[in-house]
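Hi everyone, sorry if this is the wrong subforum. Our group has a chain we'd like a structural model of before ordering constructs, and none of us has done structure prediction before. Sequence below.
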Amino acid sequence: MKARRVKKLEPRESLAENAARIVVVRLDEMRSLAPKALKPEGVKQQHDMRIAAKRLRYVLEATEFCFGRTGEVARRRAGDLQGILGELHDCDVMLPRVERHLGDLRDADADAVRRRAGEADDLDPALAARAPHRTSYRGLETLIVYLQARRRLLFDRFREFWTDQERAGSWDRLERSAQRRLEEARERRHAAKRAERARRELEEAERAERQAGLRAAAAAEELRRARRTAGPKPTPLRQRQPTTQRQRQAAPAQQRQQAAPPPRPAAPAALPPAGVEAREAERSNGGEVPRGDGG
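Answer:
Right subforum, don't worry. Here is the predicted structure as tokens:
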């Protein structure tokens, strides 16, 4: 029987993922033969199932650790199934050979008896009783009976064994374990793709940030050059802001003074009499001023 092709095997992927892909195909290959192999006349399907079980066992012998306890149990059960079907196949091979050998001996004895009869008009039964291989017939007939009975017994064992494994879920657990490995591998690949996409987006963002920083630095330098070329710009008085703490504290008082109305001009002082003013001037010059009242 030609083995099914296993698709999507990748040397770059993990051993568990590739082993799971092979196990899924080999297990399905073996189980698909069961409907016809469980019939007594399904000799070819029983032989193909033996080969499929052997292939599954070979894979699990190398990779059972990828599936834990489930892989170990399935490997042993596949070996048991291969053994039963192998013995069953031995019976299928031996029976035709024994029957063919028995037929050859009968043909040889018939030729020998015929030659012994010579030119007789009829065959003497005593000649057949003295056939050269007459003692071999019984043993071969007994062997044929043994092989036929043993085949029936092995077939009953095979059918019972397969039913027990299906009921115990040996093959189902192995399939679920393999599917979990494939699902984990798919999730890892998707996570790796997301991480790669996020990495590219981060690189693009960092590149854009660096470019924005370069443009900002260039704009600042251009602004500095422009201000240097244009010179300082006078700020209007009303728009000047206090720069020191004392100026900021004095700013409200100045604003209140600016808002208050201007003070009224003071009234002129009264002039002294003329005689008093003259005497004060004379006294300041060092002379005596005569009094107006004669004294």
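For your construct planning: The mean pLDDT is 85. DSSP finds nine helices and no strands in the chain.
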